[in-house]
Amino acid sequence: MSSNKEVEIKFGIDNVRELTRRLRATGFRLVTARTREMNTLYDFSDQRLRKRGELLRLRKYGSEWLLTHKAKGAAGRHKTRVETQTKVNDGG
Disulfide-capable partner of 43 in 11, 13, 16, 49 (CB 3.0 to 4.6 Å)? Predict the structure, then answer.
């Protein structure tokens, strides 16, 4: 199990091809093949996690399953919160 602080910054991209071209021109390369992921969110029937600003997610990425809890984020310019994650051997 691992716990990290997540800082999330989102950007709108108008031209994906141009961004890809610029990244490649500066030396960036793909390090993983395109992989489909599946996300399932869990909460109690009273939605107490959502109401507290928390999230519990089971994610399948390729053949790997991960269970992630995201704590309520701290106020600020960027979304910052503690994320705890563990690998699940049989998520299916």
Answer: 49
Confirm if 70 and 81 have CB atoms less than 8 A apart: yes
Q: CA distances (Å), 27 to each of 17, 30, 35, in order? A: 16, 10, 22
Q: What is the residue range of 42's domain?
A: 2-88
**What is d(CA 2, CA 87) in angstroms, rounded to the nearest whole number?**
9
The residues, ordered by sequence, that sit 6+ positions from 92 with a Cβ below 8 Å of its Cβ are 60, 65
Tell which residue, 7, 34, 9, 6, has the closest CA to residue 20.
34
pLDDT in tens, 31-70: 988 888 999 999 999 999 999 999 999 999 888 999 999 9
The partner residues of 82 in beta bridges, in order of sequence, read 5
Cβ 53 vs Cβ 75: under 8 Å: no
Sequence-distant (6+) residues with CB within 8 A of 13 are 19
